[in-house]
Amino acid sequence: MTVELLLVDDDQSLCETLAAGLKKRGFHVTWRTSAADALRVLEEGDFDVVVTDLQMREMGGIELCERVAANRPDVPVVVFTGFGSLDSAVAAIRAGAYDFISKPVEVDALAISVDRAAKHRQLRQEVKRLRLEVERQPRSKELLGESPAMEAVQDLIGRVAQSEANVLVSGESGTGKELVARAIHHRSARLHGPFVAINCSAVPEPLLESELFGHSRGAFTDAKEAHPGLFVQAKGGTLFLDEIGDMPLGLQPKLLRVLQERLVRPLGAKAEVPVDVRIVTATNRDLESAIEEKRFREDLYYRINVIHIPLPPLRARGGDVLPLALHFVRRFAEQSHKSVKGFTKEVAEKLTAYAWPGNVRELQNSMERAVALARFEDLCVDDLPEKIRNYRFSHVLVAGNDPTELVSLEEVERRYILRVLDAVAGNKTAAARVLGLERKTLYRKLERYAAEPRRDGASGLPTK
Q: What are the backbone dihedrals phi and psi of residue 92, each rounded to the nearest 5 degrees, phi first?
């Protein structure tokens, strides 16, 4: 990129000499012998850098710096002053100058300063552009939270959004996986294209195939008209396949081929149709375990899991519970025209103590219920669902003062493994990672626990 330079000095011969030297070094130079003329030129054209002498007749360099800083703050100014005139240099910097060069001016030194000033301007413009771009991109209203876990998710969303790579979002039910998919879409180059979503577990296999890939007229009994599938309907946008882990095994190779070839053949059609979509999938299942159990294709897993975004459960999001709760309270209060503004300290303690197995969806539902029942400006404990009011955190007993309560090391291990499994919502891969065990080792232990009765005669595994 050629740097556009405006040179200002009332010494015409110096202007000509410096302009010639700077042009040899790749700069495009326009020069003027008065500050007033320079300001008019600056209004009419775009320049990357202004270079000016401080000591000039009529309008001096200090005033010129101030005028440029006021009217064109995006254009850096480099000034040159008499040797040793430190006070003048300081005054110029205070007036808005980017840099100063001592006289007599060496062209090489001036070229280095101008190049640095031009790069500084370019960087500021890029930062401004990115800031405006971020401001234009809508953020999900419910994908809130400032915990380290959610900051990591937001950072990952921002980094992957501009790519075309397939994304797998994993997390427990109610954590907001579709909100993540929408955030990726809204921050991507496909922003103005459609966002199309389907829940793979909610549609029977024959209908799911038709919904995804489409069908031609007469393809089956009720196919009175041709139907474009979701891959075609989402052209230029994002296709979100929710609960991908529940996709029927018979459909998985067909989906894999579409992802590989970027072509789809509607049911009953002879020709394939090209597709142009970004694929985002989501699951609340342990796909690696499903692969081992032959319920999910490994090749499809690696095709959809180019980038993985694990969404943390609400219980792992630290201080996000109360801000989210307050957000939902105010939203439902506004919708129902009630004067509820917040909640009491006792309510806050109950909300933070609760484990939220249903995650953000359960929190939202609980706050909607509480606002509907509220009688005062602040929610009271009585407004909360009974399970939250009466919740008691469960601990794994590993020791006690009563010798009859002491258990064997094997029983301590069993209780802790089952507690970890419960904490990760039954995800065996996540549990094995927390426990530091191979998955096969964990499976063997769980099989043994299922076969061995506990002291109270119940099954060794927790009921879900």
A: -65, -45
The domain segmentation of the chain, as residue ranges, is 4-133, 148-312, 315-389, 394-464
| CATH architecture of the domain with residue range 4-133 | 3-Layer(aba) Sandwich (3.40)
Strand 49-53 to 4-8 pairing? parallel
What is the torsion angle, in degrees rounded to the nearest 10, for the CA atoms of residue 227, residue 232, residue 237 and residue 241?
80
What's the Cα-to-Cα distance from 333 to each of 330, 436, 457, rounded to whole Å?
5, 46, 48
Structure tokens at 283: 């699951």
- Residue 462: the pLDDT is 45
Distance CA 320, CA 315 (A): 9
Q: What is the pLDDT of residue 387?
A: 92
Domain 148-312 listed as CATH 2.60.40.2470: no
Return the pLDDT at 402.
59
Contacts of 8 (CB under 8 A, 6+ apart): 31, 32, 33, 34, 35, 38, 50, 51, 52, 53, 56, 61, 64
Global pTM value = 0.61
pLDDT the model gives residue 435: 86
Do 4-133 and 394-464 come out as alike in CATH topology?
A: no
Alpha helix positions (H), 195-266 = 205-213, 230-233, 252-261
Q: Which helix (H) or strand (E) holds 242?
A: strand 238-242
What is the predicted pLDDT for the residue at 456? Answer: 42
Report domain 315-389's class. Answer: mainly alpha
Amino acid occupying residue 254: K
Report how far residue 167's alpha carbon sits from residue 180's, in angstroms, rounded to the nearest whole number. 10
pLDDT at 54: 85
Buried b (16+ CB within 10 A) or exposed e, 339-357: ebeebeeebbebbeebbbb
pLDDT at 190: 92
Q: At what angle do helices 35-44 and 61-71 cross, to 10 degrees?
A: 20
- Residue 394, SS3? coil
Residue of 279, 268, 285 whose CA lies nearest to 238: 279
User: Residue 273 forms beta bridges with which residues?
Assistant: 264
Fold of 394-464: Arc Repressor Mutant, subunit A (1.10.10)
> Tokens 């010494």 correspond to what residue?
11
Low-confidence ranges of the chain (pLDDT < 70): 83-85, 130-142, 218-224, 393-407, 423, 425, 451-464
**CB-count exposure of residue 360 (10 Å: 0-12, 13-18, 19+):** buried
152-165 pLDDT, tens digit per residue, is 998 899 889 989 99
Choose among 30, 3, 31, 24: nearest CA to 122: 3
